[in-house]
Design a protein that fits this description.
The chain has helices at 18-34, 37-54, 77-83; strands at residues 2-5, 9-12, 56-57, 68-70. The chain has 92 residues and is an alpha+beta fold. Helix 1 packs antiparallel against helix 2 (37-54).
């Protein structure tokens, strides 16, 4: 799967990592629903760090279709809320 972090670029991420990412996504959704700004910031950072750690960066000149688009690290709670589906940022 190709994942884009807005403002950073793309990484190739194996489907085997989706369970770990979905756990963080569920936490992020709960924090957003409760208005927990500190928890939101901490979990968004953890989610993006996990994608960077587990994924393989694609070259800057590569432009693959992204199957998943994640917000930038400095995105606000309101901006991320606009990106969410009922499943959170990560489907499934």
């Amino acid at each position: 799967m190709i994942v884009r972090i807005m403002g950073e670029g793309q990484v190739r991420l194996g489907d085997a990592h989706l369970t770990e990412l979905n756990k963080l996504d569920d936490e992020l959704l709960e924090e957003m629903e409760s208005g927990d700004g500190d928890g939101f910031r901490r979990t968004l950072t953890a989610l993006l760090d996990a994608v960077r750690r587990l994924g393989t960066p694609l070259p800057d000149d590569s432009l693959e279709p992204s199957e998943l688009i994640l917000p930038s690290p400095d995105a606000t709670l309101e901006e991320v809320r606009d990106l969410l589906s009922d499943d959170g940022l990560i489907p499934g």
